[in-house]
Amino acid sequence: MSLRLSRWLLLIVLASPQLSVCQTTLTVAAASDLTNVQSDLAATFRKFEPTVQVRFVNGASAMLAQQIDNGAPYDVFLSANAAFIDRLGSFRKVLPESIESYATGRVGVLWRDRKHHSLNDLTENWVRFVALPNPRLAPYGVAAQQALEHATLWDKVKPKIVYGENVRQTLQLFDSGNADVVLTSDSLLQGRNAELLPADWHQAIIQQGGIVASSHNQSAAKHFLAFLIGPVGQSIFAKYGFGSPKP
């Protein structure tokens, strides 16, 4: 190789640092209520860890937990339901020592006319269908049902309920006109004049995350979880309607 060609190749490498820096892609299995917040989290984390790119795969926590149980190649699991993380931790599919509570979810209510109403209006004839996440799959569905039971409305409203597989699909039922009211994750309802259900009407939605035991990127995963529970990550969660994971 000539000296001139060697210098030319060296200049290319120096002018393109991305060619010489090893990039890590962190694949995060994330509950559907994180859909709106995750881009902000990924972009901010990249400022602290320039060589780590975070890629999110969203779905119902129950479905993602089953995928991890079956060997899906995720690095981090961010569940909306602590029970799924705890179960995976007990079988060491998620590293028990890595498990952290990262946020508390809140249930929001959005009406077709974008106004605030008494929950008693759910029994009115003009409310034909009420969209809820499926309680068998999503903790927000459990919380919504508990809140309606607290308000002694469950038995009256139950015949009107249409279920989404996860909080995002539940909102799509509303947005597509297939429901007149939606009860879902408040994080998906930001800027739409939704109303929060009282937190003491249902069990707290404690959201937990952990490192998937089969991950080949455990160091980057550890840094990402530390970022989520640190002050910067927590400020981003708060901006999107999540509560603190600490009592």
Give your account of this protein's structure.
Helix 2 (38-48) links the parallel strand 1 and strand 2. With 247 residues, this protein is of the alpha/beta class. The chain has helices spanning 3-15, 38-48, 61-69, 82-90, 139-150, 154-157, 167-175, 218-229, 231-239, and strands spanning 24-31, 52-59, 76-79, 100-105, 107-111, 130-133, 161-164, 181-185, 195-196, 205-211. Strands 2-1-3-10-4 form a 5-stranded mixed β-sheet, sandwiched between helices. The chain has a 5-stranded mixed β-sheet with strand order 7-6-8-5-9.
Keywords:
36% helix, five-stranded mixed beta sheet, 247 residues, elongated, disordered N terminus, 9 helices
Topology:
Elements: H1 3-15, E1 24-31, H2 38-48, E2 52-59, H3 61-69, E3 76-79, H4 82-90, E4 100-105, E5 107-111, E6 130-133, H5 139-150, H6 154-157, E7 161-164, H7 167-175, E8 181-185, E9 195-196, E10 205-211, H8 218-229, H9 231-239
Parallel strand pairs: 1-2, 1-3, 6-7, 6-8
Antiparallel strand pairs: 3-10, 4-10, 5-8, 5-9
Helix pairs in contact: 2-9
